[in-house]
Amino acid sequence: MRSPSPERLAQVGIGILFIAILRTVGEYYRLRWALGPETGPKAFEPFIPGLLLAVLGTMAAVALYFARRFRLVLWAAGIVVVGLILYKAIFIPI
Fold it and tell me: Are 84 and 53 in contact (CB under 8 A)?
C-alpha cells in the first residue's frame, strides 16, 4: 500500500482547518441557544481571536496549495492547529 501523496495530505490539512472554522462558528450558535440572545454573543467574545486565527491560517494554506507548495500547506495547517489548541488552553476557560 502506497503512502498518501503530499498533495492529498495538503487537502486533508485544509479540510481540517475548514472543520475548525465550522466548529467555532457553531459554538456561537450553541452559546446563543444555551445562554439566550443577550448573553450568548458576549460569551462568544473569547472565541473571536481563535476564529480569526483559523480563517487567516486557512486562507494562507489555500494560497500555498494553489501555489503548489504542498509541504508548506502541511506546516501551515499544523502550526494553526497547534496555535488554536494553545489559545484554547490559555485564554478560554472551561
Answer: yes
